[in-house]
UniProtKB/TrEMBL annotation:
Organism: Massilia aquatica
Membrane-spanning ranges: none
Entry's Gene Ontology molecular function annotations: kinase activity
Record key words, sorted: ATP-binding, Kinase, Nucleotide-binding, Transferase
Name of protein: Chain length determinant protein tyrosine kinase EpsG
Keyword Zinc: no
Gene3D superfamilies hit by this protein: P-loop containing nucleotide triphosphate hydrolases (3.40.50.300)
Keyword Transferase carried by entry: yes
Length: 292
């Protein structure tokens, strides 16, 4: 058998085991069919794992291993620079960091306290503009999708939306247009890098955001979304800019408050919590974010 035939045989062997580390490395282009034969030979001679053999040969690094392991266990994430999303989407680009461990802890609490009790949607709101609520909502949506939950992130900030920039969604119709009867749910964008994540952008910025969110057809829209998705997160304008958050809270029934360290005043958090309760909704929890 020639060297080329050996390489092809090794390639076919790995392809047949398409869920193996070797098969995934080959499929992703991390190794070539020619190198696959070298790796298999070392693996057999030393009795080590395929990934370890490939590393010893200098063909891949630890980051490559982590990425294919994530695919093997249906836990998608991206390498730095991969994709066209915001670099601040740490759940996508740095999923094993302490920041994302904290996000997963928040996800676990929300699953236990809210979504496991039959709830399907939640409003995420900050106090002031720049508190980081939109970015937190985006990262939270990613970790929910990584759990295998069919997740939808809705940009209900009809004043200063951010999700289209975070996820690099082309400017087009979105939530406002759906509520105005000028678009259907086909304007929802599936985020290709994450199997279970979709985003509904804000759409055309209306002159009357609070009134638009208060329309009776919003209840029907929310019911539709809840029937299609396991988790629907609404990112809404900061509470200091209007009463949009209270309108959304009445629709979803629950609110997660985002406060920024050394910036948000506790008095404002308490005031918002009281307003939410007065509107018949529940403050499911609050998170403190810290960034420069």
């Amino acid at each position: 058998m020639t060297q080329t035939e050996l390489s092809l045989a090794a390639s076919e062997k790995l392809k047949r085991a398409d869920s193996s580390i070797g098969g995934l490395l080959l499929e992703s282009g991390k190794i070539t069919p020619e190198n696959a034969e070298r790796v298999l030979r070392m693996q057999k001679e030393l009795g080590i794992r395929f990934g370890e053999a490939a590393q010893r040969l200098g063909l891949i690094n630890e980051a490559d291993i982590q990425q294919v392991l994530a695919r093997q266990f249906d836990y998608p994430y991206l390498q730095p620079g991969e994709g066209s999303y915001s670099p601040h989407l740490v759940a996508a680009y740095d999923p094993f960091s302490p920041q994302v461990e904290t996000l997963r802890a928040v996800r676990s609490q929300l699953m236990l306290r809210w979504f496991a009790r039959g709830r399907k949607s939640l409003t995420v709101v900050g106090i002031d503009r720049g508190d980081g609520a939109s970015l937190f909502a985006a990262n939270l949506a990613v970790v929910f999708s990584q759990l295998g939950e069919h997740t939808l992130l809705v940009d209900a900030n009809l004043r200063k939306p951010a999700q289209h920039s975070i996820f690099n969604i082309p400017g087009k119709q979105g939530l406002s247009d759906v509520l105005a009867g000028r678009a259907d749910l086909d304007v929802i964008s599936h985020v290709g890098s994450f199997v279970d994540l979709s985003v509904l952008g804000a759409g055309t910025l209306p002159p009357n955001p609070q009134e638009l969110l208060s329309r009776s057809n919003f209840a029907g829209l929310n019911a539709q979304l809840e029937s299609k998705y396991d988790v629907t997160l609404y990112d809404v304008a900061a509470s200091q800019t209007g009463l949009d958050a209270l309108v959304l809270a009445a629709r979803t029934g629950g609110v997660l408050i985002v406060a920024r360290k050394n910036k948000t005043h506790m008095g404002d958090v308490n005031a918002l919590a009281e307003q939410v309760a007065q509107n018949g909704a529940v403050v499911v929890g609050s998170v403190l974010v810290d960034f420069k």
